[in-house]
Amino acid sequence: MGRMLSALADRALELGPVRLAEPDGNWRGAIDEDYVYWLALDCPGKSVNTINRDVLAELARHIDHIVDQKPAAVVIRSAKPAGFAAGADINQFVGASTGDIRGMLREAHLILDRLANVQARTIAVIHGHCLGGGLELALACDKRIAVSDASLGFPEVMLGLHPGLGGTYRSTMKADPLEAMTLMLTGKSVSARKAKSIGLVDAVVEERHVASAIEAARHDEIGSDSGSLKRSAFGLKPARSLAAKQMRRKTAEKAKKDVYPAPYALIDLWEQHGGSEKAMQEAEILSFSDLVETETSRNLVRVFFLRETMRGLRQGKSGIRHVHVIGAGAMGGEIAAWSAKQGFTVTLGDVSLKPMGKAIKAASKMLQAVLKDPIKVREALDRLIPDTDGLGIARADIIIEAVPEKLDLKRKIYADVEAKMKEGAILATNTSALPLPDLAEGLSDPSRFVGLHFFNPVSRMQLIEIVSHDAVSEETTRRATNFAVELSRLPAPVKSAPGFLVNRALLPYMAEAMILMDEGIPKERIDDRAERFGMPMGPIELNDQVGLDVALDVATSLRERLGGNFPETPAWLKKRVDEGKLGRKTGEGLYKFDESGKPIKKPVEALKDGSKDDPDLIDRLILPMLNAVVACLREGVVKDEDVADGAMIFGTGFAPFRGGPIHYAKTRGVDEIVSTMNRLAAKHGPRFTPDAGWDRLKG
């Protein structure tokens, strides 16, 4: 039944007369027999639409025709199967002055205001992604019809901005204002049905019913009163001020104002001007153009382009349809579930039924959380097939090994698997530490063996390190890279080396935190400083989350293989591991954990005034991480500085608003960092010795 409904939902888009119309730039326009003017956005040469100056200038010409011809109604939708529009093209703001940006915005606002004031009923039909500027275009229409697969949102806050094409006031004045503010403050998207419940759209239909819904909208038979009472209440400033106070408090829990000014600017905007459309429009333009000039926004825009750069590493298709995962532990189970979620047929193998049962249960929970649609969850679970006999190996296009980090165990599995693999299939390992040349020993064809290092949890971490070695073929790495993008993940090509890139850079950060604790600095202070720098989690808590036993094993392995200056592990940490205090998974590690799995921390402000501190604390944590990334670039573990920055942001959460470790280093000044490291080396030892690769960054 679910597949039947999906098949019906995927019918061709209802485009009325523009299906046969010739494109005229970015739009196709035509009038149907009922004298309805149809406009389909279809940006040439792109799989998704974006809103830019050309799109809006051409829209203005169509509005001229509409005003002259006085149609019965106007329908605006996308001709792209992917969706309505992915948002505004942020390239147009890069390098522009504040005055230029304000000029562009005022020009765009005039066009959308003209659309909003057209005498005929204007109807936006939304399918797929409708984000940012695309949603602002739809909000300028009288009615919005969402196809059931639509996803709507304002992601601008992710770029250090807020909506700038009228979204701040049109959303809060047409939808439930508190829900609209939540959308803008979080950057999260909502489903079509949620959008209907908050008044953002007027109706939700299947694609096959779009024509009927347009007819109903023409005659004002559909509409949303959701949030009307709240709109009236929040037209008064005292009500907005009370709500704004709560919004600021909630926002402060996740983002500090000095680092992420955009959400606070949005709250101020609504509190001060939310009762007047014209006042809020002008304030939106000024606020948006000011935010574009902030360092936070510039760096978050850089992160956006880093993501696009990494996605752009894809060359063609992987040719992979069937994935076989060996090992139903936490990582293997998540890799299998995520692959099934992305549409691949997946067989999951393990020698025992118990972990298989746990993996399927965990997969169901994860899929419900990310898909939210019971039909889609059921379909994904149908694609995930338990396979204790390993029958899927012979049919799989890629076999991903995700068993414990034991060299002999992995080699034994490869010997069994390689004999069963079909021609052209790829053998991949999810190892996070073992050298690929060592793993490949004994393989008859090492050219099709590659590393696919996923990060935990797979459903949230965007990075996959594509690990090469001397014997792997270019075709294997190309297909593995393409597969990573097809999984909606970001590939980072790296060479097999101790810790690859991400773990090699992350471990010195985690290890230095242990040394700081050993010196008597309170763990809460260490974590707080790291989080204030912009890390998503402090290094002490991170050690507990990873597991002290795992962190100790990886640190020991890296120290043995890297030699040199890798920091020693305090003896008390080994003792804690021996006592079974391993972190979150045992309820106690460096912190104790409550029943919900959260660490029990003393408030930083409650620490004694005399408790130990170090003015170099943050440099002692962060600079060894930067030093390791520089070493990886020098050694060719990673070849591209942008990919290195992207990998650290998407693999470790390195403060996105700083633009990545290499970008941060160049912004701060390479000479200043090298000088600081030399000073720290003289004070604390050779682990702070600057890598020779810093000289290359000066140019």
Automatic annotation (TrEMBL):
Coiled coil ranges (UniProt) are none
Gene3D superfamilies given for it?
A: 1.10.1040.50, 2-enoyl-CoA Hydratase, Chain A, domain 1, NAD(P)-binding Rossmann-like Domain
Q: Which residues form the 3-hydroxyacyl-CoA dehydrogenase NAD binding domain?
A: 322-495
Q: Which EC number(s) does UniProt give?
A: 4.2.1.17
Sorted alphabetically, which SUPFAM superfamilies does this protein's record hold?
6-phosphogluconate dehydrogenase C-terminal domain-like, ClpP/crotonase, NAD(P)-binding Rossmann-fold domains
Domain of life of the native organism: Bacteria
Query: Which InterPro entries does this UniProt record tie to the protein?
Result: 3-OHacyl-CoA_DH_CS (IPR006180), 3-OHacyl-CoA_DH_NAD-bd (IPR006176), 3HC_DH_C (IPR006108), 6-PGluconate_DH-like_C_sf (IPR008927), ClpP/crotonase-like_dom_sf (IPR029045), Enoyl-CoA_hydra/iso (IPR001753), FA_oxidation_alpha_subunit (IPR050136), NAD(P)-bd_dom_sf (IPR036291)
Ranges of residues in domain 3-hydroxyacyl-CoA dehydrogenase C-terminal: 499-592
So what does this thing catalyse? a (3S)-3-hydroxyacyl-CoA + NAD(+) = a 3-oxoacyl-CoA + NADH + H(+)
Q: Which PANTHER family match?
A: TRIFUNCTIONAL ENZYME SUBUNIT ALPHA, TRIFUNCTIONAL ENZYME SUBUNIT ALPHA, MITOCHONDRIAL
UniProt similarity note: In the central section; belongs to the 3-hydroxyacyl-CoA dehydrogenase family. In the N-terminal section; belongs to the enoyl-CoA hydratase/isomerase family.
Tell me the protein's name. Answer: enoyl-CoA hydratase
**Species the sequence originates in:** Fulvimarina uroteuthidis
Q: What is the lineage of its organism?
A: Bacteria, Pseudomonadati, Pseudomonadota, Alphaproteobacteria, Hyphomicrobiales
